[in-house]
Amino acid sequence: MNINHKNSSDSSESSDCQYYSQSPDAPDPNQLTTKTVISLSPEFNLKLEQTEKSPNSFDKQKSIESVLSTNSELEAILKKEKWYSVTIQMFIPFMIAGIGTIGAGIVLGNVQSYTVFKRVKALLVLVPALLGLKGNLDMCLASRLSTQANLGNMKSKREVFKMILGNIGLVQVQAIVASCIVSLFAIIASVISHGSSEWSFAFLLAASSILTATLSCFTLDFILISVIFLSHKIKLNPDNLATPLAASIGDVVSLLVLSSWAKLLYSIRDTHQWVMYVILGIYILVVLPIWILVVRKNKYTKAILYRGWTPVLSALFISGASGLVLDKAANRFPSFSTFSPIINGIGGNLVSVHASRTSTMLHKTSIKGVIPPHTKQWVAPWTALISGVFPAKTARLLLAMSVPGQIVFLLSADLIYNGGTLVARWPFILSYLTVSIIQLIILLYSAHLMVHTMWKFKMDPDNSAIPYLTALGDLTGSTLFLLSFIFLKAINQEYQQS
């Protein structure tokens, strides 16, 4: 497909789109024209006659006209957002999210002194997985609803209510099941590392985990829904706002809820241990079946209830590995717990924005199973992150935004952590920035490959990509950051708290 641009300097998207129209090489099999989309898509061929009579029935989300776009219409879709508008919309939530990750790091550094965290070592193993679980579920919800908003499917109040109820119920079901699994994983991992005494805290850990996951997700879901509807109403792109705002307070809320419940249950475990049994019984035997019934009867979430478990559960175990890294690093480097949530949180926030925007772009300009002409499935890192395909526009903005942002977050956390005294020196600052940049490059490139591959195999990236990416962010960020601490100690430049 050849796209003519009237003004190539009007927007950075033009260079990405022209990359393909100017290329003399033979067309890539994944770079399809509109005619090829029509000829190769069995779904399209089967529904062609129906969609001519009823355009809204095609692909359940877009009309036939949106697939049979002319060059000018496709150009209008791709150039609708200007780079400066996208930057502003992403920068403000990014900074707010950074404040949230700083708060999470400070909270995590403080709660380590609690008796329950000293006695129940599995809690530190649980933290990254539980924070990742909250992020995965809420960010997937934000991505799904943002896509629906961008596709114009939020006009009927009745349908919107069904959509919201189904998604909240789905998140609660996933939170209950996944929190029980991750608490068991944390116990087993901690027993292997610290000894069999951890088994005595199994019910405490499970009750704390399930309360934290459900209560924090329930609160954040309503905040997210409000943000999505408000941004859509005032003509802003929810993809740029919802996921960072979800994470801005999510980590802090989750850590506060976890530490509060764990501390309370630990204080009564000898005299009122039955409370933990009651909590687990109510959630598993009463709350869970009710939400399952609600989700099964909801057309927007019924399919996800059966097919949406693999990414969530897989991400849990990846984040659990990050928890093991945190457990080991916190004992050796006390300040590690303060800064690792910032690196992991910011990386997860940025890659979630990229995955959400790329998924929305695919939903708006193509059909599942077909890669549209303005992007590619398999590309080199430079092409995916700098210039060559349309999603590279977002990737390079996120990369440029991350460096000054991480410097501000690092110095702010350092000042707060040390009572107003700046302790961080250049070796630590440079190693921190190096880790954050490498992590973000890995995540953004992985996001491009993952989202496009899922789309190629007719999987909805809104439901599957973000859990893998945020979990990968936790693991790569924690591992690389631990290596930087070991390196700094080897050259006698270790970070020292004042």
Structure, explained:
One of its GO terms (cellular component) is plasma membrane. Residues 1-32 are annotated as: Disordered. Residues 127-259, 341-483 form the SLC41A/MgtE integral membrane domain. With 498 residues, the chain is mainly α. Helices cover 76% and strands 0% of the residues. The protein has helices spanning 13-21, 34-40, 42-53, 64-67, 71-78, 83-111, 115-119, 122-150, 157-194, 202-233, 238-268, 274-296, 302-307, 309-332, 336-365, 381-385, 392-417, 426-456, 461-490. Helix 9 packs antiparallel against helix 12 (274-296). It is globular, with a radius of gyration of 23 Å. It starts with 12 loop residues before the first helix and ends in an 8-residue tail after the last helix. The model is unreliable at 1-73 (pLDDT under 50).
Structural class: mainly alpha
Element string (H = helix, E = strand) = HHHHHHHHHHHHHHHHHHH
What kind of sheet is the major sheet? none
Overall 3D form: globular
What integer value in Å does the Rg equal? 23 Å
DSSP summary: helix tally: 19
Assess the beta-strand content as a share of residues. Answer: under 5%
Span between termini:
61 Å
Number of E strands: 0
| Residue windows where pLDDT falls under 50 for at least 5 positions | 1-73
Mean pLDDT: 76
Helical content band: over 70%
Membrane topology: Multi-pass membrane protein
Region (Disordered): 1-32
Biased composition (Low complexity): 9-23
GO cellular component, one term: plasma membrane
